[in-house]
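Structure tokens please, single chain.
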Amino acid sequence: MNSKYTLTILLTLLLLNTHAQKNNPKVYMSLSEALQKPREVELLNIRGQRLQSLSDSVGLCKNLVFLNLMKNQLTVLPSSMGKLTKLTEVVADQNMLTVLPEEMGNLKKLQHLQLKKNKLQQLPVSFKQLKQLQTLEISNNQFTSMPATISSMKSLTSLNLSDNKIGQLPANIGTLTKLLQLNVSSNNLTNLPNEIGRLKSLETLLLENNKLTEIPAETGNLSNLKTLILTQNNLQGLPDCFEGLQKLETLILSYNQITELPPSIHKLTQLKTLALIGNPITPARLEQLRKALPDTDIRF
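Here you go.
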């Protein structure tokens, strides 16, 4: 084998190895290790280390794209987080965060942000700059209203606001037209804005364990909706608007005060599951539903 051919093979192997390393970067499991070569760090997983604070030096990891801070004891995050402008995902569930730094608004490449089970009451105003954010998980916090900055996050496809103390959704939730999943379960909602009907991409709407007495007729505009959960509310009936929900597969209405269902329910030809447990619906009406929806599993 001549030297030129050998050199070609060696160069090819070197390029392949470099490519493999680039596409499978090392996951650093401690900040101290990461700070030895901060420019090389792309993935930092320091979950479950009982950290009470995060050093400002994390801002030296300029090429960080993923940061996992889950299951620590953090009450605040350093302002240097704003220097991590390549971050696409941050997981900070199950801490004791009460506030987030305004500098996090600089994370304009951020696509996924998880902040479940903290003590947050608001989000920074600067979050309106997170135009590429697709997933926002802020369940199990202390929000009494949907943070105003969320309406600016036009790329959101999944929004989880469950297990807070939210009493009302704002009308501008209708601007989140890319939403596929909206979870507002276990809050204090008594009604929904008519603008909920603008979420034409929505596939899953979770509203269980609230105080809803009615839902707006505009809900019938959610033509891509597949799952609607309304368990444990104060509903006495539903608007006659369901003919527009032709993709609906799961409708859970258990534990309300519903005595009658609208005729448009009969037009839900794709409906696979209809749960009516704990509602005072007459046997005669149930029999009508069975005849109208022979392929639906009706639970009562």
